[in-house]
Recover the amino acids of this structure.
């Protein structure tokens, strides 16, 4: 299939994605309202992020499809063979095999994603032009589960491109396996990201070293200068531990969130979508 057919099919398939986030968010919203980490999130906080996510879903699709095509084209030129994993054999090995297969299709892509995500995320904090886009995500002063979708569509597109592009270069997946891997790992990532962005006052110290948790990620969104440039990982904090950016939460620590200098970014939809592009242009002009 060509790019346009892929795009049309993917766009039609993504229509339910508009309804999924508000529905899966309900238990998180309920928990946030009952046991808020700090100030209780308001309905307009949720609504704004959900509307923003609709733009991101549709504009990220072309990037994902192009990445898949680019990855396939580059594969034949690779000096190495992508790692083959016997998924078919697993499927016939009974229940333990099936569980192992689903786990492998969920977590192997996420490991590749994390290697890429950690560094792209650090760059977004370091390079002014990229920060103009990522700033929108950090500007939520009442961070809540819906903040997981508060991303500028161009930032989403560049993140999606490299995650999809690299998985196919590392693992030898059939088209069906690649599709399942995208669904399984995407679902896991969505539920985890909803959880770790949520404003639920919950402490799980034993989990803080295994996967991202609300307390760990709140440190990343914190307005306290001591917390700046910590906990960049998306799923597995091992990258932060490895590269010295891990910061373990103190008991009872639930920092205030927002932009470091109290700046307000993207308060209206227009501002949220256009301001980052204008800001990036300003920086590019200033750099010359
Ligand atoms: Zn960040
Ligand atoms: Zn975040």
């Amino acid at each position: 299939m060509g790019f346009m057919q892929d795009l049309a099919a993917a766009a039609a398939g993504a229509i339910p994605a508009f309804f999924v986030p508000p529905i899966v968010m309900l238990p998180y919203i309920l928990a946030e309202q009952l046991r808020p980490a700090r100030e209780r999130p308001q309905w307009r906080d949720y609504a704004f992020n959900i509307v923003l996510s609709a733009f991101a879903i549709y504009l990220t699709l072309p990037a994902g499809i192009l990445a898949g095509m680019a990855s396939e084209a580059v594969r034949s030129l690779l000096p190495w063979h992508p790692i083959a994993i016997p998924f078919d054999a697993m499927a016939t090995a009974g229940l333990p095999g099936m569980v192992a297969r689903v786990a492998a299709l969920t977590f192997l892509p996420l490991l590749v994603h994390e290697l890429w995500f950690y560094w792209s995320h650090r760059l977004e904090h370091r390079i002014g032009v990229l920060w103009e886009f990522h700033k929108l995500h950090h500007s939520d002063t009442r961070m809540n589960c819906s903040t997981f979708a508060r991303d500028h569509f161009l930032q989403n597109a560049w993140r999606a491109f490299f995650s999809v592009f690299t998985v196919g270069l590392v693992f030898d997946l059939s088209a069906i396996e690649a599709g399942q891997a995208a669904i399984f790992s995407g679902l896991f990532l969505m539920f985890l990201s909803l959880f770790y962005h949520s404003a639920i006052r919950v402490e799980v110290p034993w989990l803080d070293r295994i996967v991202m948790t609300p307390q760990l990620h709140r440190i990343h969104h914190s307005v306290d200068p001591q917390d700046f440039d910590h906990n960049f990982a998306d799923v597995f904090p091992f990258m932060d531990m490895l590269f010295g950016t891990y910061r373990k939460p103190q008991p009872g620590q639930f920092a205030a969130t927002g932009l470091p200098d109290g700046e307000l970014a993207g308060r209206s939809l227009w501002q949220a979508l256009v301001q980052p592009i204008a800001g990036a242009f300003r920086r590019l002009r200033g750099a010359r």
